[in-house]
Amino acid sequence: MEWYLKVLKNYVGFQGRARRKEYWMYLLINQIIIFILATIEYFADIDPYLKGIYYLATLLPALGVSLRRLHDTGKSGWWLLVALIPIVGIIVLIIFFCQSSQDGENKYGPNPKTA
Which of 114, 90, 112 is nearest to 3 (CA)? Predict the structure, then answer.
């Protein structure tokens, strides 16, 4: 939960680098919350406003951590636009997000593992 809160506190931080653990833990907790909200909406028989509000509230933090994760692998944040290519774009991003951190300091800042 600490990784999730760390991303939310740095919700418009598009500079720097994010470790794999930070990115994947944020994604995991985010998906758990979405599942809980979807379950509540289903059993309470309400419109999907809860998920919509949650998506909007976490849009900037999700973009921020994704950009920082790309920075950690030495790639520009513009690589997020590859997601617009159906199927292949998402696969490419998943591969980038799974890559190890670039050793040492890169143009986006110091390695968060050693900082």
Answer: 112
